[in-house]
Amino acid sequence: MFDPNATKVLAYELENRSLGLVIVETCILIVFAVAALVGNSCVLFVFYKSPDLRTVANYYLITLAVSDFAFPVITMPPLIATAATGRDMYGDQGKVIGFIGLSFALGSILTTSLIAKNRFFCIVKPQLYKKFFKKKPAICMIAGAWAIAILGNVLLSLNGKIMFVFDPGRMIYFPSSQDIYIARFFTALNQFLFVVLPLSLTVICYWKVYRSVKVHNATMATNINTGPTNRNSFSKNEIQVTKSLLALVCGSLFCWIPSASIDQISLYVSLPRSVQMITIYAASSSSAINPVIFYIFNRPFRRRFYQLFGHFLPISTVPSTSNESQTQGSNHTALTKVRRIQVKNAVPSTTKSGLFSPSLNCNIGH
């Protein structure tokens, strides 16, 4: 282990928790597990029943939903049992479960990075997007990302210096080494390749998307009477998809950055058990919050969800497509009047357009 003495202290603290702390930790994990199972089951069912939602952009969401469903099925039962009993309940399968759990985590991060790259090419490089981001290439990219995540863990396990051992601070089987310098090197390398690099590319891609849309909005505001052009234009639908996927990416960053930071810091400083548990809570919450993000920010998904599950919910009304169309028509009419007044008065619009301005009128299809 990284620090045998610290490990013994953590094991003692795990076994001698108060009844209240045992109940709280166990219940938190149960809530995350149930939320992930129910939420991702609903997500997968909605996509299964809705062929029109199975677009290339949504392939990444389906992949995350499958991963977020499988993660609690495989890893959460022994984790919850360990939290309830205060001792290692993984048995002989602990190393395998630890390997699978880490593969799920790395695969999810790489998939999140692919989402950002998809939006980058869709908004910033639309011609390349049409060429490369079709069904088969997208599936190959997703499969390649998960193959890299699994291969990285295989190479980590086969080097002979790193092994999966029970970590009482996190209550999981985690890569470890008897040599602290080897542990630091492999952990730093692993986090750079699978966390820092993908998440940095994710931030850069979405920053460029923001810049591109901001320039587009400014151009539309100052050239109202020139009409739409084909150069670097994109539809309202693509902007809405980008917005929903940005929320998903932000949720992933919120969950995985604290987890990765604690993993790295723990190699140099003996952290209290309560801090190390943030790693588990963050990973578990990542699987649980994605369905909520789908529901809140993805309007077509939300509408289809109501159609399939609305009669099970205590809700009196279901979102109506016709009502939304009427609202959009009213907004378009009002916007047209404003533009006519602006052209008549020859006063350019000075309204500051945000990243997801509802006034975009682009001509790339849905």
Strand content range: under 5%
SSE ordering: HHHHHHEEHHHHH
How many alpha or pi helices?
Answer: 11
Determine the N-to-C terminus distance.
Answer: 53 Å
**Uncertain runs with pLDDT below 50, 5 residues or more?**
320-335, 346-366
CATH C-level: Mainly Alpha
Could you state the CATH homologous superfamily? Rhodopsin 7-helix transmembrane proteins
Main-sheet strand order equals: 1-2
Largest sheet: 2 strands, antiparallel
**What count of domains describes the coordinates?**
1
CATH topology: Rhopdopsin 7-helix transmembrane proteins
Q: Please, what is the average pLDDT? A: 81
**At CATH's second level, what is the architecture?**
Up-down Bundle
- Shape designation: globular
According to DSSP, the number of beta strands is 2
Helix content: over 70%
State Rg.
24 Å
Q: From the helix content, strand content and strand pairing, which structural class follows?
A: mainly alpha
Transmembrane segments: 20-47, 59-84, 96-116, 137-160, 180-207, 245-262, 274-297
InterPro entries: GPCR_opsins (IPR050125), GPCR_Rhodpsn (IPR000276), GPCR_Rhodpsn_7TM (IPR017452)
Subcellular location: Membrane
Pfam family, one: 7tm_1
